[in-house]
Amino acid sequence: MPHRSRPAALHTAGASKKDILELVRANNVRFLRLQFTDILGINKNVEIPVSQIDHALEGQVTFDGSSIEGFVRIEESDMLLAPDFGTFRIFPWGNGAERVARIICDIRTPDGEPFAGDPRGVLARQIAHAKKLGYTMQAFSSKWGSRSRPRTTRSRTASTRSTSAPRMRSPPPTTSRRSDSW
User: Fold this and answer.
1) 50, 23 in Cβ contact below 8 A?
2) Do the beta carbons of residue 27 and residue 90 sit within 8 Å?
3) Quick one: 52 exposed, middle or buried, by C-beta within 10 A (0-12, 13-18, 19+)?
4) What integer is the mean pLDDT of 95-111?
5) Same domain flag for 151 and 101
């Protein structure tokens, strides 16, 4: 019967290519999924065998961008997957002797430039833009308390005021017209 143990929790923030390769070897990873998101927010992936991992970690794996809805035309279809080493995770399920891992990738054009339609790139540009304006972006859990609301705050250096996200307000009560004629 195959060994079914879970890999240790990994913290890969700031990891290097060498760190990822060591984790792959130490945890018997056989396949790596290079994940990315399409323009509609749907996760996509290219799965490669561990023998191709050096190639993948160098950002040299290509895919046909024209096959992904909303990306590019056939004439400009080659896209590169540039891995974000901090997102490397080993899936905790499956056969312990043949693990599968994933790493989230940014999308680049063949000349190495960031692809303008990459949702991760769009988010990064918007966060940088907000930071220039003095805002700090905050993410919240989907399990908000009854009084918790998402908000964007402006740093004290930019302004002393805090801006909350608009609240959903119920419409004002309707007033019925009373007819005094009867």
Assistant:
1) no
2) yes
3) middle
4) 90
5) no
